[in-house]
Please model this.
Amino acid sequence: MKNPEELKQIVREKYSEIVEKASSKKSCGCSCNSQNEDFTVFADDYTRLEGYLPDADLNLGCGIPTQFAQIKKGDTVVDLGSGAGNDCFVARALTGEKGRVIGLDFTEKMVERASLNANKLGYKNVEFKLGEIENMPIDDHTADVVVSNCVMNLVPSKEKAFQETYRILKPGGHFSISDIVLKGDLPEGLRNDAAMYAGCVSGAVDIQEYLSFIRKAGFKNVIVQREQENMLPEEICLKCFSREEWEEYKNSGSGIFSITVYGEK
Model:
């Protein structure tokens, strides 16, 4: 596996490419393979949610964290890895005009697209910042609620990411984060594939390790609000390893899961 900076560059380039292609081709999103084929196996349907904006939906998620986030009118909400703004605009519908929504993304083209979407809607209480989750350009005690959708698995230092999440939350605040985790081990071919890292798979860690990062950061009352197993399409996996290895993996008891997890400061 590559070093953290190389991994970040892979992700940055991949998601910049997604933005550039969004106007002419549906994005491949999480679980995308190296040929950019459309395998949105983790994405959920946002279309009936208040605040939904088609131009902001690039099919990059693995859940709908705002459904579980207990956002109230007037809250300040921070979305980590905000992409084109999909979850931010849904959060804005929940927090209302007196609330505030901040989207953070480390891909410049994503921030530009999200800001353009906000400007089109005339929203004055939604803003997008360029920055890394491991070192957020956000003040201490800013957020009542933090949400994130299929992003923490892309961050090389998940421990630092949750420490930063804790820092920006107000005392008594909470997060609701959707993400990809593992139960058991990934085959080596998947774990070492750069496209699988950018596609949210090979950067994922075991669910117990994931929850331990959250608790070590200081969060209390940590619960998994939603859990769903996801099977990658066979055609993707066979690009990474042999059919024999694929059959062995299917029968191993290991699995890739999308979860939504909650924690309080």
Remarks:
- The radius of gyration is 17 Å.
- Residues 4-21 form the longest helix (18 residues).
